[in-house]
Amino acid sequence: MQIQVPDNLLSLDNILPDEPLLMMGAGPVPIPAKVAAANGIVINHLGDTMAQIIEQVKLMSRYVFQTREGHILGVAGPGSAAMEMAVTNLVVPGSKVLSVCNGFFSSRLAEMAQRVEAEVVRLDIEEGLSADPKLVEQYIVEHKPQVLTIVQGETSSTVCNTQLADIAAIAKQHDCLVIVDAVCTLSTMPFNMDEWGIDAVITGGQKGLSCIPGVSLIGFSSKAWQFIQARNDQLRHWCLDAKLADQFWYKKSYHYTAPVSGILAIHEALRLVCTETLDVRFARHLRSSQALQAGIQGMGLDLYVKPASRLNSVVGISVPNGIDGKQLLSTMSKRYKVEISGSFGANIVRIGQMGEQCRTHNLFRTLHAFGASLNLLGQKLDLPAGMAALESTLDLNGYADEI
Ligand SMILES: *Cc1c(COP(=O)(O)O)cnc(C)c1O
Questions:
Q1: pTM (two decimals)
Q2: Burial per residue of 110-131, b for 16 or more beta-carbon CB atoms within 10 angstroms, e otherwise
Q3: CB of 25 closer than 6 A to ligand 1?
Q4: Is any atom of ligand 1 closer than 6 Å to the C-beta of 27?
Q5: Would strands 153-154 and 159-160 be described as parallel, antiparallel, or unpaired?
Q6: Quick one: CA torsion of 85, 88, 89, 93, rounded to 10 degrees?
Q7: Which of 216, 244, 252, 306 is the most exposed place for a label (fewest CB within 10 A)?
Q8: Are 223 and 368 within one domain?
């Protein structure tokens, strides 16, 4: 045998920290025990048991997307695979796409549209601001796109497109299909697929849903689904061809071997959302994120985005002058075992507020780790004032049990 067993192999015990880090970054986020347990099970990918699970995943997804008629499919792959599935199936080569870009992920949608040879017009929104429906309308009138792509929450710049419903309504008036990336926002804040007239909504597992990475969901409107069925050109992506995926998701037959463990995990994540109910879950996320924001400001630090455009699901904090963001992250994880995220551009660090991240105990530990690490690095701030602001904003007497 020419190739020998590699030397010095470590077991996972020797690689992973003794105590897991608290994942408070922009994803992946902590998963509930039920989700973790489901992810450890393998069953047959076809047959009655799987069929029953698939039916429930579709039913629960319709609730979470708020759609009666939406055509729901699962995707074996990251949020990006679901994004690519939306783009590949709804964008015909040579057609026109308007991509509203607020940062890294919305630009990824533009790049995906380019790769399927659409003529892509980018509308780059000024850093730190939400897209303005009037400006989007001007672009739609001028360029007459067949498809518009947009994010609800831009995780990279921590901006929220707060007027998404208006933008979708304008697109609809001009007969333009709307693809929305709701990876970080779904189940953390209102999203009404039918009411807003969204044609494709994408989510990943590891963010708002508090599930594992690598298994995603997509919902198509009936208009979008008709469009897909009427297409007779051959898609370039075999795995992401929605008509083929439909074999598994609606016809109990084989497309590719579905990631059964991941689908079981998504089932549990969705079931926990249904048990909590969307309204209660939205309120928990809002309260938690606002309390975190109050705590950060209470220490004397600045949030990156103004309140009117601020995303609550991922909070961007300006790195104070003289502090190295990377050093801050490593101090937090080494000393306090709390992980938060750096940035893709602006000098910010980001704390996630998605799913299990929005729990009182995680908030206190994270804010303390954040302030104490900055202190260690020489930043002057008022840590007790920040902790007090977190506590009083949470209104612990009223909400301790819920959160
Ligand atoms: C994380 C994220 C994605 C990409 O998800 P992956 O699972 O990393 O492919 C896309 N859009 C948004 C808004 C995200 O936050």
A1: 0.96
A2: bebbbebebebbbbebeebebb
A3: no
A4: yes
A5: antiparallel
A6: 170
A7: 306
A8: no
Return mean pLDDT, the chain: 96
What number is the average pLDDT over the span 3-30? 95
Query: How confident is the model at residue 402, as a pLDDT?
Result: 55
Same domain for 62 and 166, yes or no, is: yes
399 falls in which pLDDT band (50, 70, 90)? low
Q: Check pLDDT > 60 for residue 271.
A: yes
Task: Mark which of 235, 255, 275 sits at the end of a domain.
Answer: 275
**Strand duo 147-151 + 177-181: pairing:** parallel
Q: Which of 206, 240, 275 is the last residue of a domain?
A: 275
Indicate whether 124 and 266 sit together in one domain: yes
Mean pLDDT of 23-39: 98
Q: Which atom of ligand 1 is nearest to the CA of 82?
A: 9
Q: Give the structural domain span for 131.
A: 33-275
Do 301 and 342 have their domain in common?
yes
Dig out the tokens for 205 from the structure. 């597992």
Looking at residue 396, what is its pLDDT?
A: 63
Ligand 1 pocket check for 207: Cβ under 6 Å = yes
